[in-house]
Design goal:
alpha/beta; 3 domains; 9 strands; four-stranded mixed sheet; 277 residues; Endonuclease, Chain A
């Protein structure tokens, strides 16, 4: 097999022993290097010029992509980060300096020596310690909701305390990202009231139910057009049933939380969370 075809099978980058196992000869590799068809990012590795820059950088440094970087690459909700996050064993040695955020961490699940990205479980475990609680909860719940990780597998692993706490708090039915954040922030207020998630009322789940009658609905980017009409109809039905509905949007949560918090605590002070006799 020619080097370019072989490398394409690995996503554009691989160790030379893996290429040899596919039948790529040393002579063929030398010819491809000479022509520029392939490149050597580090001793023992070959890549295509078009390879993912993040993978190439990981090979050059001697790390794997991990933590929030892997979560983002898997499409999970995370806080915005400017630095890539990478991981290496505590006794590992970087091959060169890097501006990435390096996690010197023993993986919960052993890493494939040819892997350039951590498994999602390893990434989530590191993320649990690296990121604030609410951001960690959002990422964990997104992974669970999409069935990207198995709850039974997670429960059987020797998780560190931060990851164990997120596993205990995560709810599979939660909407991604913002619901997790709002729930986390309201719980920190110690309102002395039950805060339930994804309770079905009027044939549809509500995001949060505080007490018996205070409903918090959280809009995301998909709450437009037909979706918004359905949401408005459901809100109206909830009000007819005696519920008080507070609907909030993404930017209110992220940029004006004080106003959101004030709405909620004022509603509670007015007794809108209680059944009216």
């Amino acid at each position: 097999m020619d080097p370019v075809t072989a490398l394409a099978r690995f996503g554009g980058i691989a160790r030379t022993p893996a290429l040899h196992r596919l039948g790529v000869t040393r002579h063929a590799l030398r010819g491809a290097l000479h022509s520029g068809a392939v490149q050597r990012p580090r001793h023992g590795w070959m890549c295509l010029p078009s390879v993912d820059p993040a993978w190439r950088s990981a090979v050059e440094v001697g790390v794997v992509l991990s933590c929030v970087t892997v979560a983002q690459r898997r499409g999970l909700w995370t806080d915005a980060v400017t630095q890539p996050h990478v991981a290496i064993r505590p006794n590992g040695q970087l091959q060169r300096e890097t501006t990435a955020h390096v996690h010197w961490a023993t993986p919960v699940i052993p890493r494939d020596p040819d892997a350039l990205e951590d498994s999602l479980i390893n990434a989530l475990v590191i993320l649990a310690t690296c990121q604030p609680y609410e951001a960690g909860l959002a990422a964990w719940e997104a992974a669970i909701r999409r069935h990207l990780v198995d709850l039974d597998v997670l429960r059987g692993l020797p998780l560190p305390p931060d990851a164990r706490q997120l596993l205990a708090d995560a709810r599979p039915l939660a909407d991604e990202g913002t619901e997790s954040i709002v729930f986390s922030r309201l719980r920190l207020l110690r309102l002395g009231l039950p805060i339930r998630r994804q309770v079905v009322i009027a044939a549809r789940p509500v995001d949060l139910l505080i007490g018996d009658r205070l409903v918090i609905q959280i809009d995301g980017g998909h709450h437009v057009d037909a979706q918004r009409l359905r949401d408005n109809e459901h809100d109206a039905r909830l009000r007819l049933m005696g519920y008080h509905v507070i609907r909030i949007g993404y930017w209110q949560i992220m940029d004006d939380w004080a106003a959101v918090q004030d709405l909620v605590v004022t509603a509670i002070a007015q007794g809108l969370h209680r059944i009216r006799r």
